[in-house]
Amino acid sequence: MTTLHFAESLRELVGGVDVVLSDIWGVVHNGLESFPEACEALHTYRSRGGTVILITNAPRPADSVQRQLRKLGVADETYDAIVSSGDLTRLYVAEHPGRKMFWLGPERDNSIYRGLDATTAPLEEADYIVCTGLYDDETETAEDYRGMMLKARERKLTLVCANPDIVVERGDRLIYCAGAIAELYRELGGEVIFYGKPHRPIYERAMMLAGERQGHMIDRKKVLAIGDSVRTDLTGAREFGIDCLFVTRGIHAEEFEGLDQLDPNSVMELFGHPPKALMRELKW
């Protein structure tokens, strides 16, 4: 299939859908403000018996993500549960007691090891790296960390990436994330473990939580993912075997100008396998 289906509303896509796995950043908010229509759409879907699990590459635990959502005006009633790449990274740290961790990321992400028996150490003494982002994502890029990554590779350190995103929206700007450093490290020959979309563990965790709320195992044919990234949301949904609604107002907004005029070859070049449907922004 190379044609694109443009949907006007979520309601036309969720007949027979028991569970929605929705991205947060770019779909529900842009880092500075929430999108009221998107929140209303998810809340309305829930009120009609559907389950909404928010899945995010945020390098923080779910409770920290929830606090941010509340600050941005996203009501708890918008969703049933949150699964973050930070949660999965914390599991890795917890399963490696006694090993020294070099933490690379901004101070706001320190909840990644809060409450864990984790020993932090300089790069020269660490057993592995946990990367939650850049120290200063307002001014830096992954290239600023090339020297550090070369030293890490020399020591053959594993880098655990707590946010596979390359970039994310912050207002009307694109900000580099941990995924940019992780990809650089991989290009340099370093070993990387990715937690978060498009990798399978975050979807398995989300499906488990959805099943608990529905009271039965979830049929993947009755699941709809929503996201704004080809690399993480669309690829992750496709590889996990679930449909995807693609929101075009997010990080790829400029690329999607004139999307409805694309020929089949351009569609394949942009998406690979197209999503179930596209919508500029999520609404009921």
From TrEMBL:
Source domain of life: Bacteria
Pfam family, one: Hydrolase_6
GO molecular function: phosphatase activity
GO CC aspect terms: cytoplasm
InterPro entries (UniProt xref): HAD-like_sf, HAD-SF_hydro_IIA, HAD-SF_hydro_IIA_hyp3, HAD_sf
SUPFAM superfamilies: HAD-like (SSF56784)
Keyword set, alphabetical order: Hydrolase
PANTHER family from the UniProt entry: 4-NITROPHENYLPHOSPHATASE-RELATED, OS08G0542600 PROTEIN
Protein name, entry field: HAD family hydrolase
Organism: Bradyrhizobium japonicum
